[in-house]
Design brief:
heterodimer; A: 325 residues; mainly alpha; two-stranded antiparallel ribbon; 12 helices; 76% helix; B: 266 residues; alpha/beta; Rossmann fold; 3 domains; 5-stranded parallel sheet
């Protein structure tokens, strides 16, 4: 019985994988058609985007990679949309996921407000600057953004492969700033049946990193979970679950600031935004259900490889080399 | 629940005061007995059930505290109040040590309110539900209101408790493995026709409601699932949980994502 369940789950996952894989291919083929004449009805691209994002939502949850970070390179690489629109919607996608998750994470005492607020202040300030800079650069030449995005994505793929998060980092000395801001807390560890106290260190360095994270998040519309978690966890020494939840909550502040800039410039188009957000949300709802029955280690590696490929393709597209088709 | 079911015994050597108290107590629908001295009071207590005894301290022969002590020996459940016109702190302490309550005759204003609340405290509530978790929640809530409910996990247990205790109010679940709620209510009413009953159910329908009303019992649904907003809130809550789990999973923490998702079922 269990075997049948696992088998059918695996089959489902394989078909989702094929769907997502084939979708960009189909989209790419269609891209040529659009460039040639654009004889598709208005609902054609929203529908494809919806199906694509539904699969993406499932994969994002299963692979443990943020939806926003997958969305921008894949959609900008394989769909015939201008990079500004994709970045704007990418922020809205990440924002929607973060806003939906935020209340539940705060209620469960996983997202830490003391940790989130100073960091959010820094990151959201610089995400505004990043968004303005990004739009300025793409007004000069969209290829600049395309290449930078590609390089960043390749970097993220490498980060996802090599960084090993630590569940309970050991912090021996809480530094003065961390102490003054009260960056620390207690959570109940059900497994060990004990209260785990935690605090942060290397706070100044961590804050400095959030300047960069804010800039990158704003510039590429990537969300920033991929960077938030390693900085909070590995650099500042917050426990993994606190880092992950706080990072998700952080996005809802950081991305709001950046999304505002994109929205103000008319870069958020509902016809792209609505199917993307709805697709990703429904996909992640299904993804969580699947998570309970499947062990998704392979999917993570697969998604990272796809991400790497998308990054290389973005660079290729920006540089106009035409190596990857 | 009904005050006329409660028997109150007034003990005072001053007949004028005794009569006035007795009349006031009757107005408040208590079953009133009077005694002018301690011996008489003890004799009455040994013959019949007395719920509350109000005893004057200064009496010829046996003094109030002694009467209270002896009354408690006869009927340990009896609630006692000491009245006195010559009170002092020591007397008050002694009364409290006897787990009795103390009132000054000069300041009788709070006395009747206290008595009314005391009789409320005497309500015996029986909760019957086969779900131990729900039973505990309900019992805790009722305890917060200052009552000590008795609990039963099934109809058989409930009937056993009913045989040996005087129950004023029974709150009964409809869906139980041995006897269903309506049948249990009928049987409880046979044992004590005065009992008030309530039917709780998560699986209610109109017919059940009518049947409950025909038995002169009240009817409640456990969850207000009939209301659209209740349903809506439930969906929202489950969405919030799932999205929180998705948030954790996307951040790479699958273990906690599953914990959050799993906790939803509780």
């Amino acid at each position: 019985m269990v075997n049948i369940l696992i088998n059918s789950t695996n089959r489902l996952l394989v078909s989702v994988t094929i769907l997502v894989l084939s979708c960009p291919v189909g989209a790419y083929a269609a891209e040529q058609v659009v460039l040639g004449g654009g004889d598709k009805p208005w609902w054609y691209w929203p529908l494809i985007l919806f199906i694509f994002c539904f699969g993406l939502g499932i994969l994002a949850v299963m692979a443990g990679v943020g939806g926003g970070v997958l969305y921008v390179p894949l959609v900008s690489g394989f769909f015939p949309f201008h990079i500004d629109f994709v970045r704007g919607v990418g922020l809205m996608v990440a924002l929607a996921g973060a806003l939906a998750a935020g209340p539940g994470l705060l209620r469960r005492n996983l997202a830490n407000l003391r940790l989130a607020l100073p960091v959010a202040l820094i990151a959201s300030t610089f995400s505004i600057i990043g968004a303005m800079l990004g739009l300025y650069l793409s007004a000069l030449n969209p290829d600049i953004i395309q290449v930078c995005l590609g390089a960043t994505i390749v970097g993220i793929a490498a980060l996802l492969i090599f960084s090993k998060n630590s569940e309970k980092p050991i912090v021996t000395n809480q530094d003065a700033i961390s102490h003054a801001l009260g960056l620390g807390g207690v959570y109940w560890d059900e497994g060990a049946r004990e209260n785990v106290e935690w605090k942060t260190h290397r706070t100044v360095l961590g804050f400095f990193m959030f300047i960069l994270i804010g800039l990158v998040a704003g510039m590429f519309g990537l969300g920033a979970g991929w960077a938030n978690v390693p900085v909070l966890n590995l650099m500042m020494g917050a426990p993994l679950k606190i880092s992950v939840a706080t990072s998700k909550f952080l996005l809802s502040i950081t991305d709001t600031s950046a999304a505002w800039i994109y929205m103000n410039r008319g870069c958020v188009i509902p016809l792209i935004g609505v199917p993307s957000i709805v697709g990703l949300m429904l996909g992640s709802l299904l993804g969580v259900r699947l998570l309970a029955i499947a062990k998704p280690k392979m999917i993570r590696y697969f998604v990272i490889v796809v991400l790497l490929f998308a990054g290389l393709k973005a660079m290729d597209k920006g540089l106009g080399l035409g190596l990857l088709g | 629940m009904k005050k006329d079911k409660l028997t109150i015994l007034l003990v005072d050597d001053n007949e004028k005061f005794l009569n006035s108290m007795a009349q006031r107590a009757k107005l408040r629908e208590y079953n009133v007995l009077t005694a002018t001295n301690g011996e008489q009071a003890l004799e009455m207590a040994s013959k019949q059930t007395i719920h509350i005894a109000v005893v004057d301290q200064q009496m010829p022969g046996m003094e109030g505290l002694v009467v209270i002590t002896k009354l408690k020996a006869i009927a340990p459940d009896i609630k006692t109040l000491l009245l006195t016109g010559h009170g002092d702190e020591k007397l008050k302490e002694a009364t409290q040590a006897l787990n009795s309550t103390y009132f000054d005759k000069e300041d009788i204003s709070g006395f009747w309110d206290f008595l009314a609340n005391l009789s409320l405290g005497e309500i015996n509530i029986l909760l019957v539900d086969d779900n131990p978790k729900f039973l505990k929640i309900l019992a805790d809530r009722i305890k917060l209101k200052g009552h000590e409910p008795l609990t039963a996990l099934n109809g058989k247990e409930a009937l056993e408790i009913m045989e040996s205790n005087r129950i004023h109010l029974a709150i009964v679940d409809q869906q139980m493995p041995d006897i269903d709620g309506l049948v249990l209510i009928t049987q409880l009413k046979k044992i004590d026709p005065a009992i008030k009953t309530m039917l709780l159910t998560g699986h209610g329908d109109e017919k059940l409601k009518e049947a409950t009303q025909a038995l002169n019992s009240s009817y409640f649904e456990k969850e207000d699932m009939g209301s659209f907003w209740g349903f809506f809130r439930k969906i929202l809550k489950s969405l919030e949980t799932t999205m929180a789990a998705a948030g954790m999973a996307e951040g790479g923490d699958h273990e906690d994502a599953l914990k959050i998702k799993g906790s939803k079922k509780d």
